[in-house]
């Protein structure tokens, strides 16, 4: 799972928060709304291309411009990052236990309820 730089993380957050894809110009406009110093269009284009190379964004041609959208949800991306953390540890159980210790009682209860649910039957092949 590729690590995100700070600007890449900003772009991903912006795109995850939208209900539709966005052009580089739209991303630039939204990013520059809250900035002290404006970003250059070419900087945003480069970040979008890098995120595409990391398979986090897909792009499609719409008119003369490319439009970008995430390939995975924010939650799927977070789960991928957790899997990566577990994969790098020699003691997965210890990592998991330390993580659970940081969870609120409500979060633990929700996980417990999910684990106790009735499993769905496997799909039959036809």
From TrEMBL:
Superkingdom, taxonomy of origin: Bacteria
Keyword hit for Hydrolase: no
Record has Transcription as a keyword: yes
Gene Ontology biological-process annotations: negative regulation of DNA-templated transcription
Keyword set, alphabetical order: DNA-binding, Transcription, Transcription regulation
GO molecular function: DNA binding
Similarity annotation: Belongs to the BlaI transcriptional regulatory family.
Annotated protein name in UniProt: Putative transcriptional regulator
Organism: Microlunatus kandeliicorticis
């Amino acid at each position: 799972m590729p690590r995100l730089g700070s600007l890449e993380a900003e772009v991903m957050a912006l795109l995850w928060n939208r209900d539709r894809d966005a052009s580089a110009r739209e991303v630039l406009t939204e990013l520059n709304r809250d900035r002290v110093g404006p970003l250059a269009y070419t900087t945003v284009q480069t970040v979008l291309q890098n995120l595409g190379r990391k398979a986090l964004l897909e792009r499609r041609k719409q008119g003369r411009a490319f439009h970008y959208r995430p390939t995975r949800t924010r939650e799927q991306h977070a789960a991928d990052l957790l899997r990566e953390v577990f994969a790098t540890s020699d003691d997965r159980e210890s990592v998991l236990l330390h993580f659970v210790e940081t969870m609120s009682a409500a979060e633990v209860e929700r996980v417990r309820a999910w684990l106790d649910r009735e499993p769905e039957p496997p799909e039959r092949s036809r």
